[in-house]
Design a protein that fits this description.
about 325 residues; alpha/beta; two-stranded antiparallel sheet; globular; binds adenosine monophosphate; binds zinc ion
Length: about 325
């Protein structure tokens, strides 16, 4: 690796290299620089326009822990409050450790911390849901989390819900969406989702932040994060694509950022115009929320019925 350069802000020896910006930063200034970048991205995409109370979805991983700390700092500057929202998914020791990490980070910052227990609120855990269907574990878990987080954000009186999806996640979703030609899924993939299915708008402030950068932020600031891996996580082809994209990034610094940013600014809007049709939305017979493709029951209620034994798979 090249000899360490000097911090772009203070000129002291750098500790963190940022190839896509062709710069180095010291431990003190890397977080300052990253927070500034997150704020600029948030402003460019209007993420917190009109926001007063932002629920931050904190899983306990390095991305969402970084998000909580960065949004607390940005909220203090621009005038919104932050509440930490954690879902206890009931995945044994993994969930116990995650809830504890979420609570400790909120406490460090003095922000309100809410933990929603899936089993008490909806009657099932993620392992129970996964066992009741043939869908891949991460896909079932993802749909349960989206629904429960949207509802929990409403319950805590937030106007905005922020999640920690990073640039590597987005690049992976886009590439996999291209591969399968799922134009509707791609049309829905955007950094800001207006309030429609839920009363809150949903934003991804880290969508142009590399995973490596959230790891450095958490390391440099010494933040508690969960080190356990989710035991249900399935090996998917998405991971191969993600790793290969990182190799391209090494050879062409900034590639993944352009890939995601150009998608968000040019391709997704064109797809949305063509494929996102509001008219086709129906209402779930059980919970009353919108369903896709005119279905009678939404996918969350369908999973819940199977997981609690009210229906068979
Ligand atoms: P994942 O679906 O695990 O890749 O997580 C994507 C984002 O969803 C995270 O960055 C968090 O913002 C949010 N998230 C995931 N799991 C939880 C959880 N148990 N509680 C709260 N938020 C979560
Ligand atoms: Zn510095
Ligand atoms: Zn429903």
């Amino acid at each position: 690796m090249a000899k360490a350069g000097r911090c772009a802000i203070c000129g002291r020896p750098g500790t963190v290299r940022v190839p896509h910006a062709n710069a180095w930063f010291c431990d003190e200034h890397f977080p300052t620089w990253l927070e500034r970048r997150i704020r600029r991205v948030a402003e460019r995409y209007g993420m917190f326009e009109g926001s007063r109370r932002v629920a931050v979805a904190v899983s306990g991983g390095k991305d969402s822990v970084t998000l909580l700390h960065a949004l607390k700092a940005i909220g203090d500057e621009v005038g919104f409050e932050v509440v930490s929202l954690h879902l206890d998914l009931g995945i044994g020791e993994f969930s116990r450790a995650s809830a504890e990490v979420a609570r400790r980070n909120a406490e460090m910052l003095g922000v309100e911390s809410v933990v929603v227990d899936l089993k008490s609120k909806y009657g099932f855990t993620v392992p129970e849901a996964v066992r009741s269907t043939r869908r891949p574990a991460c896909s079932t878990c993802g749909l349960v989390k989206r629904y429960a987080l949207g509802e929990a954000a409403e319950d805590v009186g937030a106007d905005t819900l922020a999640t920690g999806h990073n640039l590597d996640d987005m690049a992976q979703f886009i590439a996999m969406g291209y591969q399968s030609g799922d134009v509707e899924e791609l049309a829905r993939l955007r950094p800001v989702v207006p309030a429609e299915h839920y009363a809150v708008k949903s934003v991804k402030p880290l969508f142009l932040v590399y995973e490596r950068e959230t790891a450095e932020y958490a390391r440099v600031k010494g933040l508690p994060t969960v080190s356990l891996k989710c035991p249900l996580k399935d090996a998917t082809s998405g991971w191969i694509v993600r790793e290969k994209m990182k190799e391209v990034e090494e050879a062409m610094p900034g590639f993944m950022m352009r890939f995601v940013q150009e998608f968000a600014e040019k391709i997704q809007p064109a797809l949305a115009e063509r494929y996102l049709r509001e008219g086709e939305v129906g209402r779930c017979r059980i919970c009353g929320r919108p369903t896709s493709k005119g279905r009678e029951i939404c996918s969350f209620c369908a999973v819940r019925m199977r997981a609690t034994g009210m229906a068979t798979a």
